[in-house]
Amino acid sequence: MPETPIATTGRVAVVTGAGRGIGAAVAARLAADGHAVAVIDLREQDTEQTVDAIRAAGGEALGVGADVSDAAAVEQAVSRIAAELGAPTILVNNAGILRDNLLFKMSETDWDAVMGVHLRGAFLMSREVQAHQVKEEWGRIINLSSTSALGNRGQANYAAAKAGIQGFTKTLAIELGRYNVTVNAIAPGFIQTDMTRATAERVGVPFEDFVAHAAKEIPVRRAGNPEDIAAAASFFAREEASFVSGQVLYVAGGPKA
Ligand SMILES: NC(=O)c1ccc[n+]([C@@H]2O[C@H](COP(=O)([O-])OP(=O)(O)OC[C@H]3O[C@@H](n4cnc5c(N)ncnc54)[C@H](O)[C@@H]3O)[C@@H](O)[C@H]2O)c1
């Protein structure tokens, strides 16, 4: 019988877009699991709330301001994290934006912005962090996809990016597996955050009604919370998840794939 794996402690995790929403919950959960967590968001001050909450709970956190779509900023951020916390070996590519519109009204700027944050951002962050993972011969990359990857009206840019994340995940799993690095994706359904709040505003529906309407369509009859996604990220980051790689886990209160 193989021995039970040792509890997860002592790794350095990086979570992008962790100033609020799903990223903040993932950062808090990984800190509670015993990891030191680098909290990345656009500006360092955007990370303060998450960092303070982790520290107040007895965890270790570092706030770093960086635009994940900017190669120089990513390089600087990861080297600062390595210097201040140690070699980062857990990466959660969570930073994201929406620029929804029907195809005929979608601007090139909105297309490029979404590709830039989701795809280029995940690429740049993963390329930077894998150098540490390969050296340490251990790593976890967890990418945020979405049920929108299966198609969603008004989201040609976002759906393409989130489907792209799935191909990116499977390819990195193949390339990095030999270094003991697993790469998986989480595809959330409807999660209550500022992102879905902004969508409700855009379509002119009070958020509570928007959530209630979404919940009716979800088999478990509720909308998701950031903590639902954090639980899945916690699983993928574990030592004992080392044989799970290249997978897309739909966390959507029902089957979506
Ligand atoms: N909320 C949902 O229902 C839902 C569903 C499926 C997938 N997702 C995905 O989960 C992730 C988190 O979503 P959320 O709902 O918490 O969103 P959110 O808008 O509440 O938070 C996103 C965070 O990312 C940060 N960010 C944006 N661009 C950035 C950049 N270039 N560099 C660094 N940080 C940047 C923002 O400042 C913000 O703090 C996103 O990838 C999103 O696409 C969300």
From TrEMBL:
Q: Extract the InterPro entries matched here.
A: KR_dom, NAD(P)-bd_dom_sf, Sc_DH/Rdtase_CS, SDR, SDR_fam
**Which organism is the protein's source?**
Arthrobacter yangruifuii
Q: Which residues form the signal peptide?
A: none
Superkingdom of this protein's organism: Bacteria
Specify one Pfam family.
Answer: adh_short_C2
Q: Which molecular-function annotation in GO is an example for this chain?
A: oxidoreductase activity
Q: Which residues cross the membrane?
A: none
Q: Give the protein name, as stated in the record.
A: SDR family oxidoreductase
Q: Which family does it belong to?
A: Belongs to the short-chain dehydrogenases/reductases (SDR) family.
Q: Which residues form the Ketoreductase domain?
A: 11-189
UniProt keyword terms in alphabetical order = NADP, Oxidoreductase
Q: Name one GO biological process term.
A: monocarboxylic acid metabolic process
